[in-house]
């Protein structure tokens, strides 16, 4: 959906309808955040599968993942809309080129908080999960090598 909204964004912004542009910008923002949230959930899943391994039964795991994956971005979007729906809109970068219009976040502060900071937090969480999984794999590898040396003796 992120790709579909992104590819139709410029075309839809050419209609010069503020409501349509706000809707498209909200959808683009929502699906972008949802994609990164699902990426974060995937790293949590790898952590549970490769580090915790045993005793990791989570009741209604898929339902909880779906609520987090679709709900957390919805909360961010709702907060931005409650503060001011006019943060979303049509940002024309060039008056001479009508195809440069794009519906997106118009306020830089909102962009840095609601997109950049969000993506940065997910990047940091994914990095932490990645390092933890690598350390776990290294630990298992070193234990296996010690056992094989012991058995060879």
Automatic annotation (TrEMBL):
The keyword Membrane applies. GO terms for molecular function: G protein-coupled receptor activity. This is AGRG4 protein. Its main location: membrane. It is a multi-pass membrane protein. One of its GO terms (biological process) is cell surface receptor signaling pathway. The keyword Transmembrane applies. It is found in: Membrane. Keywords: Membrane, Transmembrane, Transmembrane helix. InterPro entries: GPCR_2-like_7TM, GPCR_2_secretin-like. Residues 1-153 form the G-protein coupled receptors family 2 profile domain. PANTHER family: ADHESION G-PROTEIN COUPLED RECEPTOR, ADHESION G-PROTEIN COUPLED RECEPTOR G4. The chain crosses the membrane at residues 20-41, 61-83, 110-137. GO terms for cellular component: plasma membrane. The lineage of its organism: Eukaryota, Metazoa, Chordata, Craniata, Vertebrata.
